[in-house]
Amino acid sequence: MENNPLVSAFFDERTFSVQYVVADPATRKCAIIDPVLDFDEKSGATGTGNADRLLDHIATEKLELEWILDTHPHADHFSAAAYLKQKTGAPMAIGERIVEVQKLWRDIYNWPELAVDGSQWDRLFADGERFRIGNLDVSVMHSPGHTLASITYVVGNAAFIHDTLFMPDSGSARADFPGGSASRLWRSIQAILALPEDTRLFTGHDYQPSGREPRWESTVAEQKRENAHLTQNRTEAEFVTVREARDRTLPMPKLILHALQVNINGARLPEPEANGKRYLKFPLDALDGAVW
Questions:
Q1: Quick one: average pLDDT of 145-163?
Q2: In sequence order, what DSSP letters do the residues of the chain get, joined into one string?
Q3: Could you read off the pLDDT of 223-260 as tens digits, one per residue?
Q4: What does the pLDDT look like over 108-152, one tens digit per residue?
């Protein structure tokens, strides 16, 4: 158990997202990974129910929050990192290649005033960088493919692999967002599967195939043995062919244009305008993937 974390998962049914509290059992220090800020696209309402659930857990378990971590700029939900920092003072962090995503989406949003140096976060992690949660050693793996900026956090015997691999019966994540790449995703998956066989893998989403109960934890060995997209596609070329064909059938996430403008700005909602209201802005005809 030495240098292995306590992991608590919190599933958001609206976005099929999994949020994590990762704690050092020795020091009771912890980190939050991929928190969700609630957003209802029909009414425009925002809420903090998911984030407050994480804070309640931390208080109940008498933990001390050291980090608020995102694995990548999410396209299907708002990050709650800025809200959690406001509530706790804990620093926010993400991968250093967020600056490339910012530059890409600044043009898509025609947002010249957006700072594209990552200064919205307290720490930008490089590939191979190390830090600590309490006494737990954490290493950062750059894991692009789903996005340019995706990273994996390896904490003891646990790896938080975001949108690279899902549970074995769901295969892998899409790679067709702006800046995405099925080839890069394949290489990122291979790096994750090079971790020790008993490494616990915690995914960022579960879409509950066949209506089963949500699941989010597997191992390297299970993924090698059972993953639906890897057992039948043993080479990069085979995987890329299947992944790209699958992606061409998928509509864009319903919140991508809403969420990215928040998440590339350090999870900050737009500033209120003169009437005190906040407004999202997104472009028309900017992305492929219309459902008609």
A1: 97
A2: -TT--EEEEEEETTTTEEEEEEE-TTT-EEEEES-EEEEETTTTEEE-HHHHHHHHHHHHTT-EEEEEE-SS--SSSEE-HHHHHHHH-PPEEEETTHHHHHHHHHHHHT-TTS--SSTTSSEEEPTT-EEEETTEEEEEEE--SSSTT-EEEEETTEEEEETSB--TTT-B----STT--HHHHHHHHHHHHTS-TT-EEEESB---GGGPPP--EEEHHHHHHH-TTTSS--SHHHHHHHHHHHHTTPPPPTTHHHHHHHHTTTTPPPPP-TTS-------SS-SS----
A3: 999 999 999 899 999 999 999 999 999 999 999 999 99
A4: 999 999 999 999 999 999 999 999 999 999 999 999 999 999 999
